[in-house]
Amino acid sequence: MLEIVVCVSGGGTNLQAILDGIHKGTIANTKIKAVISNNKNAYALQRARENAIEEICISPRDFENRESFNKSFCETMRQLKPDLIVLAGFLVNIPKEMVEDFRGRIINIHPSLIPSFCGVGYYGLKVHEAALARGVKVSGATVHFVDEGTDTGPILLQKAVEVGEAVTPEALQRKIMEEAEWVILPQAIDEIAKGKILIGDNREE
Ligand code: GRF
Questions:
Q1: Ligand 1 proximity of 14 Cβ (cutoff 6 Å)
Q2: Which positions are catalytic?
Q3: Residue-range domain boundaries for the chain
Q4: How does pLDDT run across 130-186, given as a tens digit for each residue?
Q5: Alpha carbon of 127 to ligand 1 centroid (Å)
Q6: What is the 88 CA–ligand 1 centroid distance (Å)?
Q7: What are the backbone dihedrals phi and psi of residue 115, each rounded to the nearest 5 degrees, phi first?
Q8: Confidence (pLDDT) at 202
Q9: Which one, of 205, 159, 197, lies nearest residue 83 by Cα?
Q10: How far away, in angstroms, is 175 Cα from ligand 1 center?
Q11: Ligand 1 neighbourhood includes 88 CB (under 6 angstroms)
């Protein structure tokens, strides 16, 4: 059984895609141990509640400084001992200590075809605003391993999406979520659960 912790900050539609995949059996042999959010109002936490999954809210705002937040966040994750950490719209930087503790065991979904429109400052609608401003005809989503950088870890899966009629950032975001994010994030977890994608420090890069 692959035990995962999902980190969220917003609506949780990617979390919902994982929940649906587990319920439908399109994600094999996987259990969500807990959902962690930095935002106590995140609807994603409601989705966890509806599925009787432990919900943990931990925010940098509740700590004197980032160092004490990082320490607490890392300690919480160590106690949960997940096989895999899934960042699904998580807007908090992952502490370097956590990257080290879970090297090759943290994946993230980014709403563009990395290396386009990624890195510091590229999150949420900003990604799609930049893509439309550049006039791309195709965008998409990427699942990648998390390392010490921002959106810089090895790429696992990508899925392209035609921009087509999606001429506003909101429309493009929705199209990429529906056609790409909600497909490749569950797919990545399923392939990890089946051993088709190796995780951990000893995986082939
Ligand atoms: C998604 O667009 C994802 O690509 C980005 O943040 C958003 C999360 O949406 N990282 P949700 O919370 O999963 O609905």
A1: yes
A2: 110
A3: 2-193
A4: 999 999 999 999 999 999 999 999 999 999 999 999 999 999 999 999 999 999 999
A5: 11
A6: 6
A7: -90, 15
A8: 67
A9: 197
A10: 12
A11: yes
Is 191 near ligand 1, meaning CB less than 6 Å away?
no
Decide which of 1.10.10.10, 3.40.190.10, 3.40.50.670, 3.40.50.170 is the CATH code for 2-193.
Answer: 3.40.50.170
List, for residues 31-79, the tens digit of each pLDDT value: 999 999 999 999 999 999 999 999 999 999 999 999 999 999 999 999 9
User: For position 201, what pLDDT does the model report?
Assistant: 81
Tracing tokens 């000893």 back to the chain, one arrives at: 202
Determine whether the shortest distance from the Cβ of 13 to ligand 1 is under 6 A: yes
Please provide the DSSP assignment of 150-171 as one string.
SS-SPEEEEEEEE-TT--SHHH
Mutate to test the pocket of ligand 1, among 7, 8, 9, 13 (most ligand atoms within 8 A of CB): 13
